[in-house]
Amino acid sequence: MPDILFLCTGNSARSIMAEAYMNHAGAPRWRAWSAGSSHAGSPNPFALVTLSSHDIPVGEGDDAPRSKSWDEFAGGDAPVMDVIVTVCDNAAAETCPVWPISAGRAPETLHWSFPDPAAATGSDDDKRAAFDGVFADIRKTIDAFLENQG
To answer: What is the Cα–Cα distance from 93 to 79, expressed in whole angstroms?
Structure first.
């Protein structure tokens, strides 16, 4: 089963939603992870509400989404990634760690730019709408990726 890592600066919204959706839509063919260069420490609550509202399991306890440093995936005991996707422009511009190599090849790298829903202002309804819009774009992009993978 190939592994895919979604990267964002904070690993609190876009990459968390991409990880959860890919694990939902891509199972059992793909296993998804997420991380950030400067992880926020916890997922944005609106990201979790958005996932739940679209019937995407978010888990509990040890299975709950958590904000992680990308350093967790650069070490020798980490899963070896087949694909690494940056989902924000900041992370795409940063110098990423050297990723472990599988079968003599580096992971494929992709960049999918999504606006940061955590930057939304206004009422909670406005913020939920921003998260729903970004999640719809993430879902559409991942669905197209999975379709192209055969």
So the answer is: 24
What ranges do the domains of the chain cover? 3-148
Residue 133 in this model has a pLDDT that exceeds 70? yes
The pLDDT assigned to 101 comes to 65
Do the beta carbons of residue 74 and residue 128 sit within 8 Å? no
d(C-alpha 13, C-alpha 42), whole Å: 9
pLDDT digits (tens, 9 = 90+) for 16-60: 999 999 999 999 999 999 998 887 788 999 999 999 999 998 877
> Architecture of 3-148 per CATH?
3-Layer(aba) Sandwich (3.40)
Residue 73: name the closest of 127, 37, 42 by CA. Answer: 37
- Cα 121-116-120 angle, rounded to 5 deg: 5
Closest CA to 135 of 59, 40, 38, 24: 24
List Cα–Cα distances, 109 to 41, 44, 51, 85, in angstroms: 25, 25, 25, 6
Active-site positions read 8, 88, 96
Specify the pTM. Answer: 0.90
Q: What is the pLDDT of residues 104-130, one digit of tens each?
A: 777 888 999 999 999 999 999 999 999
